[in-house]
Design goal:
With 203 residues, the chain is α+β, with helices and mostly antiparallel strands. The protein has one helix at residues 171-202; strands at 7-10, 19-20, 25-29, 35-37, 40-43, 49-52, 56-57, 59-66, 77-81, 87-92, 98-101, 108-115, 126-130, 136-138, 141-144, 150-156.
Length: 203
Amino acid sequence: GLKVNEEYTLKETVAPEGYTIATESTFVINVDGKVTTTGSSTIDSEGNVVLLVEDTKTKVVISKVDVVTGEELPGATIQILDSEGNVVDEWISTTEGHVIEGLKVNEEYTLKETVAPEGYDITTETTFIIDEYGNVTSTGSITRDSEGNFVLLVQDRRSPNEVPPPDNPNTADYFDLYLMLFKIFVLGLVSGSAYIYRLNKAQ
């Protein structure tokens, strides 16, 4: 019963849990019943045009990196906790980012490191939220990969090296230094005296 030659908009207002809202599309039915659309469509077994509202699961990448070099750090244990503190995902970092799909939209999740790689300190917890369109905001650092996915960075700093106290000065070393300076002084004194003697004798 839709009007022919009129443009209609197909819009999703609420997506299923764990999915982002699909992009709007438009369609037109011509006088012959043919349907054209800016979105995806298919044909059913009876020959009817079926317009597809295609949803995508929420997706975020977690990357465990050195805060200075940006290199991936394997060996860290990382958790994602929901707004009630339940662990929804836990893994040990590798040399590649960790992908998680199907998180709820508009819920605040906590990104927590429980074990740091050897030689590094555990980083501060951060939180993030995925909105209904798949955009991610975070209290930590965030970037995008080559495929356009949001990447949350768990950045670790190296543990400060313990600096040993300076060694006590070796008195023998000082004695050798003073002795060398004394020899230089005596040599200079002798040379100077000889020069003055020769100069006076010449006159």
